[in-house]
Design goal:
The chain is α+β, with helices and mostly antiparallel strands.
Length: about 375
């Protein structure tokens, strides 16, 4: 950079170069859509040369060049380096008599440049990447209508760059989501495998048919959790909104009213699936063994997170111990609570009849931890 005249370096050069790199345009192959723009610009002005240039650190690289074979020139003698210093058109109708260009090697040297008109390729956030310019070795007049046309053509070039950037970003997001979906599916398959393993060891089921029906119910629960999980491309998700969507499904399936209350807040997308599966087990358990409305409550105070599910039924048997039961449902619940780094407790419903299952959840649920 020290070999380049400081008077052609914009004040925002670092940010401008970051914008240049954002579009990943430097040293890319020739492209018909850009070549058509330079050909059209040359015809509009009746000149032999038209160029789409990108101003790099120490060079001016030509994305499209009509009427010239050179791919790039040094930044210092290039008129495009001066053209990006302003948002206005940079015009030399006779460079041999213009004080701005008398010493420029392209003007004073063998090339013999006499006419130059360039407009900056300005991004939506105000950075000049380079220019669309037209060049002639003979002086020539230029009118405002021609300059306006050149500006419109330059806008088309920037539009192309923006479209390609958006397409690339969309593809990157799609690839990221595909990897995330693969990860979630793999986790789900591991969970289903674990369920089936636990089910195969269960002594509660009367026959193979009942075992299969129970397994199908659990697999459907995994699908239900996935259906209600919309994370987009974020790394965290609103837990309460997810629980409300899931509860609406469970209310219809179980035939009971399921109400969700609690605190707003986000958790890592990694933990939404086990939270959903735990909620599914607790709600279906409450609907099966309890009565009345089922209430799901999620609280988040600092690092303390808790998920509780309460019903309005007869309550728990005296001395009930969730860790001592042989039922598959409680084994699944205990496994999910452990996965979430939490602790399960049971009690009577403090609002009256019924039972409450509470899972104090681990601090790793915090998306920012």
């Amino acid at each position: 950079m020290s070999a380049i005249s400081l008077n052609i370096i914009p004040e925002n050069e670092a940010e401008r170069m970051a914008a240049v790199h954002r579009y990943e345009i430097l040293d890319t192959p020739s492209d018909g859509s850009f070549d058509r723009v330079t050909a059209l610009a040359a015809r509009r002005f009746g000149v032999p040369i038209s160029i789409i240039s990108i101003v790099d650190h120490d060079r001016i690289w030509f994305k499209s060049r009509h009427g010239v074979d050179v791919q790039q020139i040094g930044r210092d003698p290039g008129l495009c380096a001066s053209a990006i210093l302003s948002s206005d058109a940079h015009v030399l109708v006779d460079a041999s008599t213009d004080v701005r260009s008398l010493t420029n090697p392209l003007v004073a040297g063998d090339f013999g440049l006499r006419f130059y008109a360039g407009v900056p390729l300005q991004t939506s956030d105000g950075f000049n990447l380079g220019t669309l310019c037209v060049i002639d070795k003979n002086p020539r007049p230029v009118d405002q209508a021609q300059i306006d046309d050149l500006k419109d053509l330059a806008s088309l070039v920037v539009d192309q760059l923006e479209l390609r950037l958006a397409a690339r970003q969309a593809l990157e997001k799609a690839e990221l989501m595909a990897r995330e979906i693969d990860h979630r599916v793999m986790n789900s398959l591991h969970f289903v495998s674990g369920l089936l393993t636990m089910q195969s060891r269960s002594t509660a089921a009367a026959d193979a048919s009942a075992q299969l029906r129970e397994a199908a119910t659990r697999v459907a629960a995994v699908a239900r959790v996935h259906r209600n999980f919309y994370s987009g491309d974020t790394e965290e998700v609103s837990c309460i909104e997810f629980l409300r969507r899931l509860a609406a499904d469970l209310s219809e399936i179980c035939g009971v009213e399921v109400e969700v209350t609690g605190d707003e807040g986000t958790v890592s997308t990694t933990w939404i699936q086990p939270i959903g599966l735990l909620t599914n087990e607790l709600v279906t358990n409450a609907a099966k063994h309890g009565a009345g409305k089922v209430t799901v409550t999620y609280t988040a105070e600092g690092d303390a997170r808790e998920l509780s599910v309460c019903d309005e039924g007869e309550g728990l048997p005296k001395g009930f111990d969730p860790t001592a039961t042989s039922g598959l449902g409680m084994k699944v619940i205990s496994s999910l609570v452990k996965q979430l780094g939490g602790k399960l407790t049971v009690s009577d419903n403090p609002l009256g009849r019924g039972a409450c299952f509470r899972a104090a959840l681990g601090t790793q649920l915090d998306a920012h931890s």
